[in-house]
Automatic annotation (TrEMBL):
It comes from the Bacteria. Residues 6-181 form the Glycosyltransferase 2-like domain. This is dolichyl-phosphate beta-glucosyltransferase. Pfam families: Glycos_transf_2. SUPFAM superfamilies: Nucleotide-diphospho-sugar transferases. Belongs to the glycosyltransferase 2 family. The chain crosses the membrane at residues 255-274, 338-364, 376-392, 445-462, 474-495, 547-564, 571-590, 618-639, 651-672. It is a single-pass membrane protein. Keywords: Endoplasmic reticulum, Glycosyltransferase, Membrane, Signal-anchor, Transferase, Transmembrane, Transmembrane helix. It comes from Streptomyces lasiicapitis. InterPro entries: DPG_synthase, Glyco_trans_2-like, Nucleotide-diphossugar_trans.
Length: 825
C-alpha cells in the first residue's frame, strides 16, 4: 500500500516530551484518515491515506529509545531507528528521511513547538505546486504563543539574516523545525546532504534552491518549549556549517575560471609586480604618482583620524577636495592596512590586479546566471568584457575604470527588480550597491546607467509584454534604492560639489570623441596593435577607449544576424551601436572626407554630470555588450553536434569557433610596459628635508618646478616621506577662476608659470624686479621653507633662473639643489 505521509522525528534525550508528541500526532493523523475514509466511502476500493512515523534516536542516554520502542510495538506504523552514538540532528534527519516511503515527508521536532494541526497549511502549499513548505515564525500571520529568551531570539534573527544572505535567499526562518517536502525530492536532497548538525535545514533548503524546486514559507502557530537542546554556541556552529556548505557548493569550473582571470591580470601587471616600489608604467604618464598619493593620503587621514574627504598636503595652502577627485575611498579605505605595512605602490598594484580579475569574474557570474549556462562560453564573454582594449588602456593608470566588479552586481539586482519577487529587499540591496560604487567611481556608474538605459529601451520595444509586467516593480525598487542611497551619499556629494575646493565641471577640450576609425583599429597593447596608428586616433595611451578591431565588429554583425530572433541579442546590438555612436562626440568627421556631422552627444554635452565626461569613454559600454554577444554565440555553437541536432551541426560549430578565435586573437592584450623608477633624492628619502622645513609652522617644501599634471614626481617624494611635508601645486582636479571651472592641477601663479615655462623650453628667462616681487608674494602665499631642484633635463636653466629670482645661489645637499627661504623669503 502506498504511504501518503511520512513523519520523521529526530530525538535526543526526549523522554519527557516524546510520548505526548507521538500520541498527539497519531491521534491527529487517525482522525484525518477517518475523515478522508468516510468522504471516499462511496468510491469502490478507496483507501484512507496511509502514514508512517519514524523516530530516529540520536544516541540518547535516557529512556527516549524505550519510549519509541513501546510506541512502535503498539502501532506498526511507528518505527524506531537507532543511531548509535550522538552525531547530531542532521545525521538523524538524514537517516529518517532516507528510510521513508511517503509521498510527502514531514520533519518535526520532538517538542512539537509547531502543533501538528499546522500540517494542513503546509499541505495546501504543496497542493499549490511547491516542492516544499517550511513553517515560519517570521512571516506575517505567524503566531508566537510563548517566546524564547530575548537573547535567543536576537541570535536567531541575526543568524537567519546571515543565512539568507549567504545560502538561502528569500527564506526568513530556516530553523523552524516544521517542514513538509515532496517525498522523492526530500530523499534526493537528504541523500546529497553532508552536514550532521543544526545546519542541515539550511543545506536542504539550499539544495532545493539550486535545483530550482519552489519552496513556500508558511506562517504557523509556534510556542517555545522548555528543554531545548540548542545552545548559544550552536548558532556559531550553524554559521560555520553554512559557510562550509557555501564553499563546497562552488563549482570547480568556477574556481578554475577565477584562477585564470587572476593569473591573466597578474601577467598583465607582471613587470610591476617584480618590484612595485621601483617600477613605473610609462604609459600611465603621471597618473601612477597621483594614484599612489591618493592611496597614501587616505591611509594617512584614517591613521590620524582626519577628514578623508579633504587634505592640505597637496596644493598648499588651499588644499584638495578628495571627494571631487578619483580617490576611490571604496578601495583606498579597506586597503589602508596594506598601505601602512607595504606602501601605496603595493596597494595600488593589488587594487588594479585584483580589481581587474574580480571584474572579469563578476561579468562571468552575471553571464552564467542570466544568459548562458555553458561555463566556457561565459568565461570567454567575460574575458572580453574585462580585458577589452579600452579596459587595458585604462589599466595603465585608471583603477576607477577597471575595478568594475560592482557593475554586474548592480545589473543583476536591477533584473531581479524586474522579476518583482522581492522588491523591497532587492531595492535596498541595489541602493547599497550603488552607494558603494559611488565610492569606487562615479563616472563608470554613470556610463553603466547609460548602458542599462539603452538596453532597457531596446528590450522594452521588442518585448512589450515583459516591459508591461516589469516596469512597476522596477520603478518601485528604484525608488527604494534611491531612498537608501541618497541619505548615505548626501554629505559626501555635498562636499564634492559645494565643499572647499569644489568645482563645476572639468574641461577636456575639443576632439575628445572617438574617430569612427578608432572603433575598427587595434590598440597599442593588443597583439595586432600599432602604436603609431593608435596614438593618432586617441588622446593619449590611457584613453584608447575603442579599438575593438574590424574582425570583432564583423563577428558581432554576423552573430546579430544569426541570432536575430532573440530579444536579448537585439537589445545588446542596439546598446553597442548606440554607445559607439555616442562616443563619437558632439561632432565627428567621416573618415577620408572633409564631411563633419553632428553626433547625438551634442544633446548631452552641456548637461550636468555629462559635461565632465570624456565622451570617447562611452565606447567602453560596448565591451560587456560585445562580450555577451560572443558568449551567446559560443554557447549556441557548443550545443551544435549534440544528440538530436542536425548532422551538419558539428562542422558549423567548428567553423563558428574558428571565426570567434580569429576575431578575438588580435585583441589579446600584451603585458603592460614598465621601466625602472627614478630614485627619490637622498635629501627626501633620508629625511634631510626636516632641517629646512618647519612643519609645526606650516611651512611647505617647494619642488622646482612645482608639481603639475605633466610632471608629478614630487608626489612620489611626498609618499616616500610618509606625507611628512606639504606641497604647493600638484596633480588633482580643482577650481579655477571666479566661475570655479575644473582644471587639472593648482590655479596658476606667476612663479609656477615661470618655472614651468623654463622647464619646457630649457632656456633661462631674464628676471625683472616684477618677477622678483611676484616670487616673494608667491613664496609667502605658499609659506615656503625650502625650494628643491632634483637633477633633471634642463636643470641648469632652472637653477640659474631661481638663483636670479631669489638673489641667492643654490646649495648642493644630499643629491639636490636647495634654496633656504624660511618664512617665504
Amino acid at each position: 500500500m502506498t504511504v501518503d505521509l511520512t513523519i520523521v522525528i529526530p530525538a535526543y534525550n526526549e523522554e519527557r516530551r516524546l510520548a505526548p508528541t507521538l500520541e498527539a500526532i497519531r491521534a491527529y493523523l487517525d482522525k484525518a484518515a477517518n475523515t478522508a475514509g468516510a468522504a471516499e466511502a462511496a468510491d469502490a476500493g478507496a483507501q484512507p491515506p496511509q502514514w508512517e512515523l519514524i523516530v530516529v534516536d540520536d544516541g540518547s542516554t535516557d529512556r527516549t529509545a524505550d519510549i519509541a520502542a513501546e510506541a512502535a510495538a503498539a502501532d506498526p506504523r511507528i518505527q524506531l531507528l537507532r543511531g548509535g552514538r550522538n552525531r547530531g540532528k542532521g545525521h538523524a534527519l538524514r537517516q529518517g528521511v532516507l528510510a521513508s516511503y511517503g509521498r510527502r515527508v514531514l520533519v518535526t521536532d520532538a517538542d512539537l513547538a509547531a502543533p501538528i494541526e499546522e500540517l494542513e497549511a503546509l499541505e495546501k502549499a504543496l497542493a499549490d505546486g511547491h516542492a516544499a513548505a517550511v513553517g515560519s515564525r517570521a512571516r506575517p500571520g505567524a503566531t508566537i504563543g510563548v517566546h524564547q529568551h530575548r537573547l535567543r531570539e536576537l541570535l536567531g534573527r541575526g543568524g537567519n539574516f546571515l543565512i539568507r544572505t549567504v545560502a538561502v535567499p528569500g527564506i526568513r526562518d530556516t530553523q523552524c523545525g516544521f517542514k513538509l517536502f515532496d517525498g522523492d525530492r526530500a530523499r534526493a536532497a537528504f541523500a546529497a546532504s553532508r552536514l550532521t548538525g543544526w545546519g542541515i535545514d539550511v543545506e536542504i533548503l539550499h539544495h532545493f534552491d539550486r535545483q530550482g524546486w519552489p519552496v513556500a514559507e508558511v506562517p504557523v502557530r509556534w510556542s517555545h518549549q522548555e528543554g531545548s537542546k540548542v545552545r548559544p554556541a550552536d548558532y556559531v556552529r550553524v554559521l560555520a556549517e553554512v559557510t562550509s556548505l557555501k564553499t563546497r557548493a562552488v563549482r570547480r569550473t568556477d574556481l578554475l575560471v577565477a584562477g585564470l582571470f587572476l593569473a591573466f591580470a597578474t601577467v598583465l601587471y607582471s613587470a610591476r609586480w617584480i618590484s612595485p616600489d621601483h617600477r613605473y608604467l610609462p604609459h600611465s604618464l603621471q597618473d601612477q604618482n597621483q594614484w599612489e598619493w591618493f592611496f597614501e593620503v587616505t591611509a594617512h587621514n584614517i591613521g590620524h583620524l582626519q577628514n578623508p574627504l579633504f587634505t592640505h598636503l597637496q596644493n598648499a595652502p588651499d588644499g584638495v577636495n578628495l571627494m571631487a577627485n578619483t580617490v576611490m575611498l571604496g578601495l583606498s579605505v579597506p586597503l589602508a592596512p596594506v598601505t601602512w605595512l607595504f606602501g601605496p605602490a603595493v596597494s595600488l598594484n593589488l587594487a588594479m590586479t585584483g580589481g581587474l580579475a574580480a571584474t572579469a569574474f563578476a561579468w562571468y557570474w552575471l553571464i552564467v546566471r542570466r544568459l548562458v549556462r555553458h561555463r566556457g562560453a561565459a568565461a570567454l564573454g567575460a574575458a572580453l568584457a574585462a580585458f577589452a582594449p579600452p579596459m587595458i588602456s585604462h589599466a595603465h593608470a585608471h583603477p576607477n575604470f577597471i575595478v568594475l566588479f560592482m557593475i554586474p552586481l548592480i545589473v543583476d539586482r536591477a533584473l531581479r527588480l524586474c522579476e518583482g519577487r522581492h522588491v523591497v529587499r532587492d531595492g535596498v540591496v541595489l541602493g547599497l550597491f550603488a552607494t558603494y560604487q559611488i565610492f569606487l567611481g562615479e563616472e563608470p556608474l554613470l556610463l553603466a546607467a547609460m548602458g542599462m538605459l539603452l538596453f532597457t529601451v531596446a528590450y522594452a520595444v521588442v518585448r512589450r509584454d515583459v516591459a508591461r509586467a516589469a516596469w512597476r516593480p522596477l520603478a518601485r525598487g528604484t525608488a527604494i534604492a534611491l531612498t537608501v542611497c541618497i541619505p548615505l551619499i548626501a554629505f559626501p556629494l555635498w562636499w564634492q560639489f559645494f565643499g572647499p575646493q569644489s568645482y563645476k565641471s572639468v574641461l577636456h577640450g575639443d576632439n575628445a570623441g572617438n574617430s569612427p576609425l578608432a572603433l575598427l583599429s587595434f590598440s597599442e597593447r593588443s597583439l595586432a596593435g600599432d602604436a603609431e596608428t593608435a596614438s593618432s586616433l586617441s588622446m593619449n595611451p590611457t584613453e584608447q577607449n575603442a579599438f575593438y578591431g574590424w574582425p570583432l565588429i564583423a563577428l558581432a554583425l554576423l552573430i546579430v544576424v544569426w541570432l536575430w530572433r532573440s530579444a536579448v541579442v537585439k537589445a545588446l546590438a542596439f546598446t553597442a551601436v548606440a554607445a559607439a555612436f555616442l562616443s563619437l562626440g558632439p561632432k565627428f568627421r567621416i573618415p577620408l572626407t572633409d564631411v563633419v556631422l553632428s553626433g547625438p552627444w551634442a544633446l548631452l554635452a552641456d548637461r550636468p554630470l555629462f559635461e565632465s565626461v570624456i565622451e570617447s569613454r562611452v565606447a567602453m559600454v560596448c565591451a560587456p555588450a560585445l562580450g555577451m554577444l560572443v558568449a551567446l554565440a559560443v554557447g549556441e555553437l557548443a550545443a551544435r553536434g549534440a544528440e538530436g541536432r542536425p548532422k551538419w551541426g558539428r562542422p558549423f560549430r567548428y567553423v563558428g569557433l574558428a571565426a570567434v578565435t580569429a576575431a578575438l586573437l588580435p585583441l589579446l592584450p600584451l603585458p603592460l610596459k614598465a621601466v625602472d623608477r627614478a630614485d627619490v633624492p637622498a635629501f627626501i628619502a633620508d629625511g634631510t628635508w626636516r632641517s629646512y622645513v618647519d612643519t609645526a609652522a606650516g611651512e611647505t617644501l617647494v619642488p622646482v618646478p612645482l608639481p603639475d599634471p605633466a610632471y608629478a614626481e614630487a608626489l612620489h617624494w611626498q609618499t616616500t616621506a610618509d606625507l611628512g611635508f606639504r606641497l604647493p601645486g600638484g596633480y588633482f582636479n580643482g577650481p579655477w577662476g571666479p566661475d570655479r571651472v575644473g582644471i587639472y592641477g593648482a590655479s596658476p601663479r606667476n612663479t609656477s608659470n615661470l618655472l614651468r615655462d623654463v622647464r619646457n623650453s630649457g632656456r633661462t628667462v631674464r628676471i625683472t624686479d616684477a618677477w622678483r616681487n611676484a616670487a616673494r608674494v608667491d613664496l609667502r602665499y605658499w609659506n615656503a621653507g625650502v625650494l628643491v631642484l632634483a637633477p633633471q633635463a634642463g636643470d641648469a636653466a632652472l637653477r640659474s633662473t631661481v638663483d636670479d629670482l631669489l638673489g641667492q645661489r643654490a646649495k648642493w645637499v644630499d643629491g639636490v639643489w636647495i634654496w633656504d627661504v624660511h618664512g617665504g623669503g
